[in-house]
């Protein structure tokens, strides 16, 4: 899913459009847009493997925005 979102131009790293092959470094600011939500996080740590319950230790949420759909 992450590759698909990245290849559609919905992820930026430090305000530059990222592709699925773009390297990520500690300190980078990632903005991810999916559905009606935009999430901005800062990378705190990188690891080759990590358990699901430890993943939240690798980033901090900077902003979380929701767009409402009006019909």
Automatic annotation (TrEMBL):
KW Nucleotide-binding (keyword) present: no
Stored InterPro entries: RqcP (IPR025490), S4_RNA-bd_sf (IPR036986)
Keywords in alphabetical order, please: RNA-binding, rRNA-binding
Named from the GO MF annotations, one term is: rRNA binding
Question: Is the keyword Metal-binding in the record?
Answer: no
**Which segments cross the bilayer?**
none
Q: What is this protein called?
A: RNA-binding S4 domain-containing protein
User: What species does this protein belong to?
Assistant: Liquorilactobacillus hordei DSM 19519
